[in-house]
Signal peptide protein
Amino acid sequence: MRKYLFTVLFIAVAGMFSTQAQVTGRWKTIDDETKEAKSIVEVYEKDGKIYGKVVEILNPAKKDSKCQNCKGEDKDKPILGLTIIKGLKKDGNEYTDGDILDPQKGKLYSCTIKLDGNDKLSVRGYMGISLIGRSQTWYRVK
C-alpha cells in the first residue's frame, strides 16, 4: 500500500511541475521570410507570469541591432537582452493575456503561446482577435 501511495504522490507532483517546466527554457526563433534561425529566446516565469528575453542573436551582422522602431521604454534598446514576451498567464494548456514585441517593426501584439509536443512552441501574435494575426513555431534548444 505504501508503494502505491508513494507512486501516486510522485506522479501527481511531477505532473504539477512538468507543464511549467516544458514552456520555460531556451527556444530558437525562425525568420518568417528567410526561414533561417534568427535568435534564441529564454522563456521564464516571474511572479506567476511568463516572459521571454532575447539571449542570443544568431546573425553576426545583427548582433548589435537596436529596437529603433520601438516606442516607450524599449526605444533604441539593444535587441540582445530585450524582453519581447511580457506577462502571459496560464489558461488551460495555453498562456494568454500578455504581449509580444516584434523588435524589427517595433510593434506590440497580443500573444498566446502553447506547446506543440515537447520541443515545439506555437507562438501567436495578433491585434484585436486571435484570428487576425500571425503564428510562428519556435524550437527548443537543448
Q: What stands out?
A: The longest strand covers residues 37-46. The chain is about 15% helix and 45% strand.
